[in-house]
Amino acid sequence: MWKIKKGAKFVAVALTFGVMASAAFQGTNYLFNQLGTGSEEEQTAELNMANAVSTSADASDSSSSSETSSVSAIADAAMPSLVAITNQSVQEMMNWFGQSQVYESESSGSGIIVGQTDTELLIVTNNHVVEGAQTLSVGFVDETAAEGHINGTDADHDIAVISVNKSDLSEDTLSKIKVIEIGSSSDLQVGEQVVAIGNALGYGQSVTTGIVSALNRSVTIDGVTNELIQTDAAINPGNSGGALLNMSGQLVGINSAKYSDTTVEGMGYAIPVDDVTDIIESLMNRTARTEQVAEAERGFLGITGQDVTSEVSEAYGMPRGVYITSVTEGSAAAAAGLQQGNIITKFDGTSVSSMSDLQNLISYYRSGETVEITYSAVSDGEYVEQTVEVTLGTNTNTSTASNE
Prior knowledge:
The protein is of the alpha+beta class. It has helices spanning 25-33, 40-78, 127-130, 171-176, 277-284, 310-316, 332-336, 355-362; strands spanning 82-94, 100-116, 120-125, 133-139, 145-154, 159-165, 193-198, 206-221, 224-231, 243-245, 251-255, 268-272, 299-300, 303-308, 321-327, 343-347, 350-351, 370-379, 382-391, 393-394. The chain has a six-stranded antiparallel barrel. Strands 7-8-9-12-11-10 form a six-stranded antiparallel β-barrel. Strands 14, 15, 16, 17, 18 and 19 form a six-stranded antiparallel β-sheet that branches.
């Protein structure tokens, strides 16, 4: 179980499984009446064979019915813990004339309620589901929705935790949702059946089932390698951030379509829950910043930068983040020792993948606040991750929009 500060509570999920059984008397009687008039030994042998065939067929039917019933029960029990997440963000692109154009975009994903405090629900999802979000909408099992806030993200493991204020939810909604029960991904075995639930393609929650095809499968994205659960349960865009459940209805993985190979059918990946427990606990204990600071009081870092996109990251072996192109003399960044060529990857514990991400994060911090910045610098021909504390300054040059 994950521990949450501020008096957090976890709710266990109780599952009930129904098993259907059937009898074969009618089939056996029919077959007996059709037996020939041979010897008593021949009739006995034929009758035994008929009973064996009938028993085998019934066992198969019973197994199929039991499996369907189990998946249905697991889905029913887990649905109150699943949410749909809608990310509204602002994207920037260049037109044919080299001019920058800004437009709004919307994407969808899934999330899992993994904890709660007296004042908020805590939801785990994928980092790429909430990346670049200006606003987040979280939809619950009763089809109500509320605003979500990012507590923190970890891009390297594609994990994020968001929160929803309980005060934004009705008592009726609170009575219908619950915290998922956490299982152990380390106990999974190849060939074991699993159930995947998520907001597939943004059409609403869907359920798929399959088996564990492989464990500890190494997959490299954006220069970062993770060990993942491979399954043949369908995981599509929108399923990202959804739950991979064992047949006890416990959370064992977090689905991620980011890792799926679109050129191969029947192959999906999930992040093993045991591998990210510490990350999730850390992000859950962070406080979400929900109000932007007035521009006159806003913190100032003092750098200009360029995005290190996933394409650039893979082509040049650079960490994804913000490449510092210049540092303002006398700024907070300069005082902290940040230099041109450093790549900022995290700001106050939250992953940064673009300059717009960094600008959006800083907009929630006041001048004078001290934050931890994670960056990568070249050492002996390799990028080495470092951290530094920075006390944010005041922007005295409001005309430099790209300077944060």
